[in-house]
């Protein structure tokens, strides 16, 4: 007797990807109006791709423009398709793949930073160690009491990850991260 074939969990994973998945940082200049973010994010979810980091803020108030920075991971040909589709959405003015700028002879990889606020509850030796590590990794104390610290750290994603990893055994309580903010190097803008 033949066993029934189980269908795939999602239609997005029916075809096997032959290209290696890679992380990409995309910057989009968009109109600052309701629904734009939902349309942009819908393209990613519609293709079954996760967004690893997302930041959005109005950057040019007089022109009503916002900048969306998205970090995603996928096969290069699919990322190229996403970029092409993003370029065709009416309120999107420009799409720049900051990751490729660094590879194509521009000055270097993009400047990427993230902000995290990290709450650590500790006492005794753990308290002293948390202060020592925060000082070594240039984290700032933004709140403190006898039983806890709240640190602010800004840096590259791996630096923020490292700080959080070091605080975990000392009494990590809570973490809030902004997501990646990124700019290309050099004198030119978007």
UniProtKB/TrEMBL annotation:
Among InterPro entries, the record links this protein to: Acetalactate_synth_ssu, Acetolactate_synth/TF_NikR_C, Acetolactate_synth_ssu_C, ACT-like_dom_sf, ACT_dom, AHAS_ACT, AHAS_small-like_ACT
Kindly state which reaction or reactions the protein catalyses: 2 pyruvate + H(+) = (2S)-2-acetolactate + CO2
Record has Transferase as a keyword = yes
Q: In which pathway does it act?
A: Amino-acid biosynthesis; L-isoleucine biosynthesis; L-isoleucine from 2-oxobutanoate: step 1/4; Amino-acid biosynthesis; L-valine biosynthesis; L-valine from pyruvate: step 1/4
> Tell me, which GO biological process terms does this entry list?
isoleucine biosynthetic process; L-valine biosynthetic process
Amino-acid biosynthesis listed as a keyword: yes
Q: Which Pfam families match?
A: ACT_AHAS_ss (PF22629), ALS_ss_C (PF10369)
Q: Which domain of life is it from?
A: Bacteria
Which GO terms label this protein's molecular function in UniProt?
acetolactate synthase activity; acetolactate synthase regulator activity
EC number(s) reported in the record? 2.2.1.6
- Give the record's keywords alphabetically: Amino-acid biosynthesis, Branched-chain amino acid biosynthesis, Transferase
Q: GO cellular component terms?
A: cytosol
ACT domain span: 25-103
Tell me how this protein assembles: Dimer of large and small chains.
- Its family? Belongs to the acetolactate synthase small subunit family.
Function according to Swiss-Prot or TrEMBL: Catalyzes the conversion of 2 pyruvate molecules into acetolactate in the first common step of the biosynthetic pathway of the branched-amino acids such as leucine, isoleucine, and valine.
Task: Quote the protein name from its UniProt record.
Answer: Acetolactate synthase small subunit
Source species:
Aureimonas glaciei
Q: What is the lineage of its organism?
A: Bacteria, Pseudomonadati, Pseudomonadota, Alphaproteobacteria, Hyphomicrobiales
